[in-house]
Design a protein that fits this description.
Largest sheet: 5 strands, antiparallel
Strand order of the largest sheet: 7-4-3-8-9
Mean pLDDT: 86
Distance between the termini: 42 Å
Low-confidence stretches: 167-178
Strand content: 15-25%
Structural class: alpha+beta
Number of helices: 11
């Protein structure tokens, strides 16, 4: 069991689970375990219950000869993007869509044929941002089409920290203390998703407010202005290295380009 991989995966999965968009109805358990940095069989089981997340992790692991789907490298490939995605042939992606995700039933034959055509002309890189941009949105057990707003919220975003509560450098701890509402948010500069002539692109960086707390609990360590962070559905996921920022930007842009293909 890769404890670091499990915890990292849970950080990214916590927000949509918190809002009830995907995964089991155990969001309080996932958040409690994150606060305590607990990675055990229960965490493995909970994350395995995400019907889109876990199949993708299994695919990436298998194609790269990794036994554990929650290996940190596999988890990072799915949520952020790394070289593991480049080792998966287009044919295997299509088999995955047919056999594991059963996309024809979920998005219809017409939309699926469009995806199949694009897979061979522009390599599909099977991770979270590609799925969000190009397949479908799943909310509370229902399949519905994305809007620009839901794509922007559902993709993994990144930004540079600009401001803490009361404009001060603060040390975020995992003590589970009761926080004032004003202390639960930070601001970051991040590029918003835009649509022009039905094509997606990113605009100039703007200031966004993101949440630090899940059920009044914080599981991210020390932050300072200038740090890069990732966020999902308006809630913080992790502190990023510059390499991770570059990877996330690169693979997100590839997902946009795939979407924009006619």
């Amino acid at each position: 069991m890769d404890r670091q991989g499990l915890i990292l995966c849970a950080r990214y999965a916590a927000a949509p689970n918190f809002f009830g968009y995907c995964g089991p109805d155990k969001n309080k358990t996932i958040i409690d375990q994150l606060k305590e940095k607990t990675a055990d069989k229960e965490m493995t089981y909970l994350l395995s219950e995400f019907e889109t997340l876990y199949p993708y992790l299994s695919l990436i692991a298998y194609e790269n000869g990794v036994k554990d789907p929650f290996d940190r490298r596999v988890v990072e490939a799915y949520w952020i993007g790394n070289h593991y995605l480049k080792k998966i042939p287009a044919g295997d992606c299509l088999s995955f869509f047919d056999e594991r995700l059963q996309l024809t039933k979920k998005i219809g034959q017409k939309d699926y044929e469009k995806i199949k055509k694009k897979v061979f002309s522009y390599n599909f890189l099977p991770n979270h941002c590609f799925h969000v941009f190009n397949i479908f949105k799943r909310t509370v057990g229902l399949v519905s089409k994305h809007t620009l707003e839901t794509i922007d919220n559902c993709k993994i975003s990144f930004g540079q920290v600009t401001k803490f509560p009361e404009n001060q450098k603060v040390k975020i701890t995992n003590q589970g203390h009761k926080m004032k509402s004003k202390d639960r948010y930070i601001t970051v500069r991040a590029k918003p998703l835009m649509s022009i002539n039905n094509k997606l692109l990113f605009g100039k960086a703007v200031v966004k407010t993101i949440s630090l707390a899940y059920r009044e609990k914080i599981f991210i360590g020390e932050l300072k202005p200038g740090d890069w962070v990732s966020f999902h559905w308006g809630m913080i996921c992790d502190i990023l290295t510059l390499k991770q920022v570059k990877n996330l930007e690169f693979y997100t842009q590839k997902a946009v380009e795939f979407y924009n293909l006619s």
